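QA checklist item 7 of 12: single-chain prediction sanity check.
[x] sequence parsed
[x] length recorded as 176
[x] structure emitted
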Amino acid sequence: MDEKLKAFYELYERRKSVREFSDAAISAEVLSRLLMTLNRAPSAANRQPWHFIVVEKKGREGLNALLTKEGFRNAPVIIAACADPHLAWVRRTDKVNYSWVDAAIAVTEMIGAATAEGVGSCWIAAIDAEAVKAVLGIPAHIEVVGLIALGYPLEELKKENKARKPLTEIVHYGKW
């Protein structure tokens, strides 16, 4: 396998959810590259129905009070990933709105970029979305998809053999 290709796949072997962060700040350069990754992500019909609120550690007391884990409160950056259903592409046959899918794709790409930068991340779904909206001043029509904690992990990101379902349980060829 080509070295660049090998490095790409190894990146996803190192990616994991980080719940404890060091005190090291994320530089403006690194954060800028991560935000550009959000901006470059694909979305259905290129609608880009997302908004991302970057909340740095200083002055984050209101948001921190809503977090269930102390480790998340120590993350240098938390990004609120939001979806605007009014801007999203909607599938004609069943009216499924793709705003959450699109926001999730953008966050997933950013998490990959963060891993490449040596930055740990964790998608925080256990939130009170309405309380997050109130604390961050998010308009009523915007939906909070999740919070993403970002920071340098206490331990280097490395390959772990976390249990995964075998492909035979999740991949189907031709028909189910």
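[x] summary fact logged: The longest strand covers residues 143-151.
[ ] second reviewer sign-off
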